[in-house]
Amino acid sequence: MIDLSLPASRVDPSQLAPAQLPIATGLGANRTTRLHFWQAGLTFSANGTLVNTTEPVAYYNGPMPPAGDIAHDYVFYLFQQEAAFAPPPPDSPFNVNNVNAAGINRNSFSVQRFADGEGVGDLVAANYIRVQNPAPGSNGTAGPTATSSTPSATGGIATLSPSPFTGSAEKLGVRGALGSIVLGSVALLLA
Predict the structure, then answer these.
(1) H or E element: which one contains 111?
(2) Cβ(121)–Cβ(139) under 8 Å?
(3) For residue range 56-108, what is the model confidence (pLDDT) as tens digits?
(4) Which residues, 6 or more positions from 14, have their beta carbon under 8 angstroms from its beta carbon?
(5) How many CA atoms lie within 13 A of 106 on its CB side?
(6) Model-level pTM?
(7) Is residue 115 classed as helix, strand or coil in its secondary structure?
(8) pLDDT, tens digit (0-9, with 9 covering 90-100), for 135-155
(9) How far apart are CA 18 and CA 60, in angstroms?
(10) What one-character-per-residue DSSP string does 26-53 give?
(11) What is the C-alpha separation between 185 and 188, in angstroms, rounded?
C-alpha cells in the first residue's frame, strides 16, 4: 500500500538513500509517496483465494495523513511475480531490515522504479482508498454522509455512515504465482 499524497515538505532529501532519489512524484504539486505495506510471495489456493506463507517485506502501517491535510490516496498494486524476483538487497532502504527499522526508509517509494525492477511482471490489479485526517477542532466530516463526535477527556469516536460504491471491478482471471503487492502510502507488492 502506498500513499501517493504525502506532502513533499515532510521529506528531507538529505536523509534519503540514493535508491530513494530523485524524490518519487506523488499525486499533485509538491507531493511524494510513502510505502505502508509490501507483501511478496502470494499464491492462489485451489479455490482462488490469495495465500501467503512469507513475512512481509514492509510490515503494515495504517493510513496516517497529517491532520488538516488534503485527502490522501492510498493505492494497492498487485504485480505478477516472476521467478527472477528477489526482495531488495541489504543495502537498499527498502530491504526488510531497513524499511521496518526506520520510518524515513518508507518515504519516496517509486512504484515506477519498482515495476521496472528485475523479476517484477505486469501490473495485474490495483485499488485505492482515500483517507483524510481533519484538522484539530474541525467537525471531522469526510463527506455528506459522515457524522462525528467531539473527542473529550474520556475519549470520543468518530462514526461514518457508509457511502454507496459507485465504482466498478472486473475479474482478471489470473491464476498461479503472483508478483508483489504494493499498497499505497503507498504499496502492497505480491510476489
Answers:
(1) helix 111-115
(2) no
(3) 888 898 998 999 999 999 999 999 988 888 888 888 888 878 877 778 888 99
(4) none
(5) 30
(6) 0.69
(7) helix
(8) 776 654 444 433 333 333 444
(9) 24
(10) -SSTTEEEEEEEEE--EEE-TTS-EEE-
(11) 10
Q: Which residue type does 183 have?
A: L
| Cα 15 versus chain centre, distance | 21
Q: How far is CA 169 from CA 30, 129, 166, in A?
A: 31, 14, 10
User: One-letter amino acid identity for 166?
Assistant: T
**Distance, first Cα to last Cα, the chain:** 14
Residue whose C-alpha cell is 499525486: 27
Amino acid found at 102: A
**Identity of residue 42:** L
Helix (H) or strand (E) holding 99: helix 96-99
Q: Which set of grid coordinates corresponds to residue 131?
A: 483517507
* C-alpha closest to that of 184 among 121, 119, 131: 131
Q: Is the peptide bond before 22 cis (omega within 30 degrees of 0)?
A: yes
Query: Residue 153: CB partners within 8 Å, gap ≥ 6?
Result: none
Residue 71: closest CA among 189, 149, 185, 188 = 185
With beta carbons less than 8 A apart as the criterion, state whether 119 and 84 touch. Answer: yes
